[in-house]
Amino acid sequence: MKIWTSEHVFDHPWETVTTAAMQKYPNPMNPSVVGVDVLDRHVDPGGKLHSHRLLSTEWGIPSIVKSISFTNLVSVDERLVYKPHPHEPDKTILTQEAIISVKGLSLSSYLEGLMANTISSNANKGREALEWVINRLNAEIEEFTASARGTMRNSMAAAAFVEK
Predict the structure, then answer these.
(1) Which of 21, 90, 91, 119 is the least buried, fewest Cβ under 10 Å from its Cβ?
(2) How far is 94 from 99, CA to CA, in rounded Å?
(3) Taking the CB of residue 20, how many other CB atoms lie within 10 A of it?
């Protein structure tokens, strides 16, 4: 078993980061993620949101190993925790942890190490993807605001024309 951990600070408030996290897939940084299923989502008595999601992925696996099922041999449990920064309200701390287990294969610890390196690389892509989603959401908000302003101006102009 190998444990991988990471911490990252986003320059965005918690509300923005968590909204983006729930809309993270699909994105161009993680094309191998083809689906997300929410298995469980609840708020605990302390007010914390827990979301247990299953990501469906498509990996480019060499043809020689495609017939082998790794379902019972490889296990990766990943946990992501988003918390408001304790001293800077416009920032969010992401703590990630992955527990990797490879069973029943020789060189298990070597394979776990390779998987930890892959998870680390993918975590960087995941953070880039979250920034991409945040930028997309901010653009949608700006577009909506501009559209609403235009609608209000047109309504006000029409009302002024009617009054004359």
Answers:
(1) 90
(2) 17
(3) 24
